Amino acid sequence: MKNNKPGVTKNDIFSLVTRYMKEKGVVSPSRISIGAPAYDEKELNQAIDSLLDVWISMGPKVKSFEKQAAKYVGTKYAVAVNSGSSANLIALATFIAVHKIPRGSEVIMPATTFATVASPVIQLGLVPVYVDIDKNSWNIDPTQIEKAISKNTRIIMPVHTFGNPADMDLIKNIAKKHKLLILEDACEAHGASIRNRKVPSFGDMGTWSFFVAHNITTGEGGMVFTNNEEYYNALISLREFGRMPAENNANKRLAYEDKYLGRYDTRYIFIRLGYNVRMTDIAASLGIEQLKKLDDLNAMRFERVNRYMDALKTFHKYLELPSVKKNTVHSFYGFPFIIRKDSPFSRRDITSFLEDRNIETRPFFAGCLPDQPGFRIEPHRTVGKLPISRWARDNGIFVGCHPMLSNTQERQVIQAFRDFFLEKGLK
Ligand SMILES: Cc1ncc(COP(=O)(O)O)c(C=O)c1O
User: Fold this and answer.
1) Domain check: are 275 and 395 in the same one?
2) What is the CATH number of the domain that holds 387?
3) pTM surpassing 0.90?
């Protein structure tokens, strides 16, 4: 086999990419989108580095990204996977495996959230119990959690919706009192914190998503966080076919022995039923550079949100705007608002107006999960009539506030709101 030394070095390639990106400059999305990756030559060169080394599946970059993410969030361990949905799936499967949680056990979660908060619960044979959201934070309402608890409850799954930290003090108290586990979904909340402590470091486990619309992105990707070594060992095994964790058998590949298999290659010992939800080194290399920029990218979001808030407060009697609790950092995945009950216009009026001006709008994810066709037919429980969740389902909207929007685009958003109210004759 030939082993020719190429006439160009990696550094030549990196310099060319850098030159290309600098000459191209920052290009804002043509549409005023919900999200867009904030990439420069650093992400591209990290990924090219992996490609040139032909490290294309899970390898050293995944390890390094995990180390960096755990340090950022403040947990002992981080386990990288291929999506936020997979992160929730293996976190729940870990609880089930470690605590031998029986099928039919209940998981309390907000009714207003994304589909794959609840679907892995159902797929694993557990039952979601949907509770209403709080009318100000739009997060799970802790007073409703108490009402939802039954003898089958085992897990509370708070979600830091749109990057707004849920009330972890109250939730932790409830969990402690009733001996419940907490899986904290921070898939929309990179960099959000409570009293300078980052989410999702409050619960027994927590998750992030790196889907392309999120504050930092690897295209597709996710992470599970925990301080618990037993969970960590189950997570890395579940991520990879249910295999005996590689950490346990380094340099001992042929050391495994039992009465059925005799001496056997430890890499082919499967200690449980697992999945394959690994992150690739290409995705991790993007994440490594993204994480370094997270605080700066969030700072740009906060400035944009402040300007939106300033401009929209005049219309506060028609629109419920996001609120940020003292001592918390809200990471503003998007800029959400809800049309007030007595407003003289509908969500359709305002979304059509904004969309006509090239401004992308979205509802509050699934709106109210137990009303979704795929979820209403599955076993579940609800607590009360979920009035706030159904109000958010019918009247909630979010628009983009991400750093890739230009200042001109930001002004277009603000002007569009002003024009909408002007056209309606509302002040
Ligand atoms: C709260 C929440 N949980 C989980 C997910 C799933 O993440 P992913 O799209 O990476 O699978 C999302 C998706 O955005 C989400 O908003």
Assistant:
1) no
2) 3.90.1150.10
3) yes
